[in-house]
């Protein structure tokens, strides 16, 4: 109600505190995205919803939405097409923490995300079937070796896909991983901050 009346909240927690428990599930921070390197790339963002605009499509007369999210490092516009919007409408609530997967696009010279899925952390259905690991195109062979050793030593039930930033290349690995926050932090440490990881 504070946000509705004042445009901001006096009592709400800072965004980075709200998403701190699940931000390791994201592949990118919003400030890391750029039109030079990420257009057409599949990414996952952990953020809170800060604005919603529902529109009716001219062609089909169905509802879709333009949603603004903030992860504490920047804001991003989401395009939520009718089929997805119909299934997740109840999730799109102002200041709700969400995990968004989609493809990076540009609208009116601004980055946006063509949204493929939106989940609430801990929600039934967010079952973590796949781990996405963002890898810089400048990663060294030594870093890749250390990453491989870490993954092989922590095998489990979740698929692993490496996303090579700025190249458009994704590689699905032939083995699986047992995923947790500790593993996420070890991966980030090996890749020296050039990677973030996420679960879909």
Number of strands: 9
CATH superfamily of the largest domain: Nucleic acid-binding proteins
Count the domains: 2
Sketch the major β-sheet.
Answer: 5 strands, mixed, barrel
Instruction: Tell me the CATH topology of the largest domain.
Output: OB fold (Dihydrolipoamide Acetyltransferase, E2P)
> Helical amount among residues, as a percent range?
10-25%
CATH architecture of the largest domain: Beta Barrel
Helix and strand string, N-terminal first?
Answer: HHEEEHEEEHEEHE
Q: Write down the CATH class of the largest domain.
A: Mainly Beta
**Radius of gyration over alpha carbons?**
17 Å
Uncertain segments are 6-11, 193-200
Please state the oligomeric state of the protein chains shown: single chain
> How many DSSP helices?
5
What does this protein look like?
The protein has 200 residues and is of the alpha+beta class. The protein folds into two domains: 13-119, OB fold (Dihydrolipoamide Acetyltransferase, E2P); 130-199, no CATH class. The protein contains five helices and nine strands. The chain has helices at residues 2-6, 15-18, 82-88, 141-152, 181-190; strands at residues 42-56, 63-70, 75-80, 97-107, 110-119, 130-135, 158-164, 169-177, 197-199. The strands form two sheets. A five-stranded mixed β-barrel has the order 1-2-3-5-4. A four-stranded mixed beta sheet has the order 8-7-6-9, with helices on one face. Helix 4 (141-152) runs antiparallel to helix 5 (181-190). The radius of gyration is 17 Å and the shape is globular. The two termini are 32 Å apart. 30% of the residues are buried.
